Amino acid sequence: MAEIALRNLTIDFSGFKAVDDVSLTVKNGEFVVYLGPSGCGKTTTLRCIAGLVKATSGDVLFDGQRVNELSASQRNIAMVFQFVSLYPHLRIRENIVFPLKARGVAASEIRRKLDWVTDVFKLGDELDRYPSALPPGARQKVALARAVIRDPAVLLLDEPLSAIDEQFREEMRWELGHLQRQLGVTTIYVTHDQREAMSLADRIVLMNDGRIVQVSEPDRIFFDPVDVFAGQFIGSPSMNLIDLAPADGGLRLGDSGVTLTASDDGIPGWALSSSRPLKLGVRPLNVHLVDEGEPGVPLAVDDVFSVGRERFFSFRIGDAVCQGVDKRRAPGAPGRVHFAPEGLLFFDAATGRRVRAGDAA
Hints:
The protein is an alpha+beta fold. It has nine helices and 21 strands.
């Protein structure tokens, strides 16, 4: 196993900075997930760690040793890609042990390691079959087995589940997390799927435009985003963002005609006294349509819809379409929109950065 450190890593492609001054340490045995939209730099970073892309500047270190000039084969890494590349003419057992045979490992050691990965990955029934006979999830599991049989110091996974049908993906997520904990190998995983990141990661590295936006545990990045991008990218449905403009004694909610004042429950005084425009960030689970007479503000409801046993509603403030949970006792009755105080986040309207008590003035 290894500790991976990136120090001021920059990767420039003919003037385009795919990775821009990134620094991060991945601890020995940690499962870190790089998350972000397409083109944000996460796969380029992974390929640089693997030795497949050369850094323009900065360093990649394994256990404190600079590896910039080492080839991929010299770094003792294993990499699994989005699309499985098994040898179709070889049985599963031959696919798995191929890296060991290529390195001239003794036959007795190959048998021992094959027995080990067969047990870990529960592949006993598939060993004598060909790749074409296996479902997509099982083929990806074989690719993982082939990667870890080499005892790599680092396991690099580039969207390994995105080509698998949804019915297999949930099971594979659970299995992958279980296997990584069992193996204890330092793992870096790239995905654009936040569900994978939230369910697998010890820490999430959220990237955008070649830079790291936030590095946090999954629950913290959900509840405590550092900026508007982090707040909106994490969570489905996305966080509601509502413009807040200073008004007489409070904050005006976009062009709704509603002004939040000191009498509105849960709006902190430091936010109400802000002299600059803000954005209110609140997740749909913290926006409630409640009965008339309960604390809330009068906002017109666009639609009410059900998902399973839950009733949701949507409303507009300016160009922003917002969502919340319908908690009225009688569907169809008049209601008011209540923002749960514990779910209110505030962002600077100009920079998008989080604003907290003490820095809003």
